Amino acid sequence: MLLSGGLDSATVLAMGRAQGFAMHALSLDYGQRHSAELQAARRVAAALGAVAHEIVHLDLSRFGGSALTDPAIAVPEIGVQTGIPSTYVPARNTVMLSVALSWAEALGAQHLFYGANAVDYSGYPDCRPAYVEAFERLANLATKAGVEGRAMHVHAPIIALRKAEIIRTGHDLGVDYAMTVSCYQADDQGRACGRCDACRIRAQGFADAGLPDPTRYRSAGTA
Amino acid sequence: MLLSGGLDSATVLAMGRAQGFAMHALSLDYGQRHSAELQAARRVAAALGAVAHEIVHLDLSRFGGSALTDPAIAVPEIGVQTGIPSTYVPARNTVMLSVALSWAEALGAQHLFYGANAVDYSGYPDCRPAYVEAFERLANLATKAGVEGRAMHVHAPIIALRKAEIIRTGHDLGVDYAMTVSCYQADDQGRACGRCDACRIRAQGFADAGLPDPTRYRSAGTA
């Protein structure tokens, strides 16, 4: 599974484990702005019982083209807009799924879990069901496993859920969201800005779910 | 384009350039057994006029599962067999194409070149036309470019050529194959073993093309 350190993939880890899968978590150090995300991924993998966690280094920031990897492009703070956001990293999820596919095939695993969500943030092209289906099709053509009849499956169990539903699902499975970091520009301690799109959607999700928001914000800190 | 340092991708670089494309070459340092391959890629990129060459590090050898990355699995020397060879690296080409897609999108490029060949070495699942079509479909669903109508194209210009035809094509375009390394277990100077599948297919290709084979072999050296 792909594990980012955010709320969505933490939920997917808990869901996969609840279904009885031995979850192997993959995180990508792709040159993102902050390291709090990867620290959160480590905490989540340990706390939610991943049987293995690999952090693979692959520097996509050298290519540029995203607010998440290029300091010259500002992270938007004006509220969620329509269209594909500047925080889209060119083909990042395709790269991550491909690396996960490599690991899965080497392990003899036939299931990939992907925490894409098409509802509250439909601006990302690689979070749509048609993309997930296309990747699953590719995975079966690409691999020895697929060719030899051990079909690869790509699970995207939260793709059609609202953020509040994701949060309630994880809450019921015992996920402590205090250890996750969603903010696009979290500080070194993982404290959130409260202004970027990821922060806005997350905060609304807790409000809609009727659950307390455990997110640590910079401005609300005790300095 | 993906550039391995071998004969096929060198030919594809020359073909793309002859068509007027400004070729950007991508090589992956994935933990392969020998560095001669990447040294050859550098020589080829420079000699054939790539406008840029990036070598991306991503260690797939940690996952194992291939004779090319796991010293415990021997490179076959008994002649080309049917089925998927042990030199298949799980999903490696999918990872490389995905990284190339990321770079292409950041560049604003709409064309990927991929030196897959389905004829002389049909054992690799990710060298078949159906795979190339599936990747192109994915690329258009995965990217901002694809969603916004700037279609991505995956070119596999040698996929249906015999090795001898590839060699004649490159020869006519002025490719010096002496700088390419095809051997799965070349030594530090890029000298070939002459016994692995890649060596056998390459030698047969030059013979069938009626052209002198410039490959440097270990055993034929002047020690």
Please explain how this structure is put together.
The structure is a homodimer of 223-residue chains. With 223 residues, chain A is mainly alpha-helical. The first copy, chain A, has one domain: 3-Layer(aba) Sandwich (Rossmann fold). Chain A has helices at residues 7-18, 36-47, 92-107, 129-142, 144-147, 163-172, 197-209; strands at 24-29, 52-57, 111-113, 153-155. In chain A, the strands form two sheets. A two-stranded parallel ribbon of chain A has the order 1-2. In chain A, helix 2 (36-47) links the parallel strand 1 (24-29) and strand 2. The first copy, chain A, is globular. The N and C termini of chain A lie far apart (36 Å).
